[in-house]
Amino acid sequence: MLNIIICGAPGSGKGTQSKLIAEKYNLKHLSTGEILRNEIKFQTEIGKKAEQFISKGQLVPDEIIITMLDHILDKEMNHHKGIILDGFPRTYAQAEALEKLLKKRNEEITLLLDLKVNDEELISRLLKRAEISNRSDDKLDVIRKRLEIYHQNADEVNNFYKKLNKYVAIEGIGTVEEIFSRISQVIDSTINP
Ligand code: AP5
Ligand code: MG
Fold this sequence. Notes:
By secondary structure, the protein is an alpha/beta fold. The chain has one domain: P-loop containing nucleotide triphosphate hydrolases (Rossmann fold, 3-Layer(aba) Sandwich). It has 8 helices and 5 strands, in the order βαβαααβαβααβα. The chain has helices at 14-25, 32-41, 45-54, 62-76, 92-103, 119-130, 140-163, 176-191, and strands at residues 2-8, 28-31, 82-86, 111-116, 167-171. The longest helix is centred in the last third of the chain and has 24 residues, at 140-163. The mean pLDDT is 96. Residues 14-15, 31, 33 line the site of magnesium ion (MG).
């Protein structure tokens, strides 16, 4: 199977690129952020817990998110050619847990794609989206908090995958098509070295 992680700061284009990758390579797109927003919409137990963290731009606690992903993998894995994980793992503990979750299913991560975009561009993209989105975290003070938390955790997660030789940085500025073409080249050369 082809199991990809796409990571990068808030607004770096994870969701936009994941949809294109999922379609081209027949992967299941799993965005923990989108799944949580859906849980909030239906006011489930997870949703009620997650809401207070998301609206403040903080991370939902590891144990909640890891248990949630375990259940999702039970449902979604094996029905596709692989998965594209968008926004998970976000902490070192989540990266370690993911290894175990995949190992017990005889699977592993193929590749991590890290979308590189500077903070100025990220804030501009998210403020633009705020005009049309109803996301509780698309407000300037919460956007700044999301960026701060991202920068606190990113190195640890990226280093985890660098050590496994699975880390690839992608220039995340340009048109959506240009970035997708960069990503496709990396994926294709990983599948057919
Ligand atoms: P999550 O939903 O993952 O949000 P995020 O990381 O803040 O990122 P976004 O979804 O805002 O941006 P994106 O990178 O997907 O970019 P997009 O394609 O939308 O997480 C939300 C919250 O949930 C977290 O803060 C946390 O509380 C919780 N959470 C989620 N996962 C968790 C985990 N694992 N552990 C703990 N807590 C977790 O693009 C952004 C905008 O830019 C769009 O308007 C888009 O149209 C535009 N755009 C895209 N590409 C380009 C381009 N090339 N040029 C110009 N504009 C572009
Ligand atoms: Mg997203």
